[in-house]
């Protein structure tokens, strides 16, 4: 399963600026409709970006192969799409986390994809393997990194603040999973939808964050 979206198989202003018409997370149905005719992951990302950019025009601008993001209180970060012998690299706006002033970008590098978090206050960048799903407390998010090759095949919970992002814990299923998506039932529980080999229908597992099967990630 591609990292483009948990449900898809492959598929900035300074402090003085007025309030933004904010972007909203792309839903499963919206992603399917936007990318049904996309040729590849990079083009799908651009289709999503085209949906999000009008609401974020004060902080991010597309100029050809360049994506220009204004930092707060001042500064500029530029992401450039490039073509190399090993494949193309691309960046596309995916979402904006208003309370954390963090832009979420979808990235591709050859046939691999992922997500990048850009915190506008300071310009720090953090790469994560799949779409970050924000918790109700808006201080944590979850990722589900599952695929046949090149993935960790783990669910991870991260802590995000205005001054940084760090992975707090991970959990791995005892048997191979595919088509994994994650949602938050509440601040302490996530729901994992997944399939096992030969499953006719997806399954759902609830996992409390306090469960001892989670492995803490050292910050040393």
Structure description:
The chain is mainly β and 220 residues long. The chain folds into 2 domains: 1-131, no CATH class; 132-220, no CATH class. The chain contains 2 helices and 16 strands. It has helices at residues 28-35, 41-52, and strands spanning 60-63, 66-70, 76-80, 82-84, 87-97, 102-109, 112-119, 125-128, 133-134, 140-145, 154-161, 164-171, 178-186, 189-195, 203-208, 215-216. Strands 4-5-6-7-8 form a 5-stranded antiparallel β-sheet, with helices on one face. Strands 9-10-11-12-16 form a 5-stranded antiparallel β-sheet, with no helix packed on it. It has a 3-stranded antiparallel β-sheet with strand order 1-2-3, with no helix packed on it. Strand 5 and strand 6 (102-109) form a beta hairpin. The model is unreliable at 5-21 (pLDDT under 50).
What's the shape? globular
The residue-averaged pLDDT reads: 88
Strand content: 35-45%
Strand order of the largest sheet: 4-5-6-7-8
Low-confidence sequence ranges: 5-21
The percent of residues in helical segments reads under 10%
H/E series, N to C?
HHEEEEEEEEEEEEEEEE
Cα Rg? 17 Å
Distance between the termini: 32 Å
- Count up the domains: 2
Secondary-structure-based class equals mainly beta
The biggest sheet amounts to:
5 strands, antiparallel
Number of helical regions? 2
What is the number of beta strands? 16
Q: Summarize this, please?
A:
Helix content is 9%, strand content 44%. With 220 residues, it is mostly beta strands.
Draw up the topology in text.
Blueprint: H1 28-35, H2 41-52, E1 60-63, E2 66-70, E3 76-80, E4 82-84, E5 87-97, E6 102-109, E7 112-119, E8 125-128, E9 133-134, E10 140-145, E11 154-161, E12 164-171, E13 178-186, E14 189-195, E15 203-208, E16 215-216
Antiparallel strand pairs: 1-2, 2-3, 4-5, 5-6, 6-7, 7-8, 9-10, 10-11, 11-12, 12-16, 13-14, 14-15
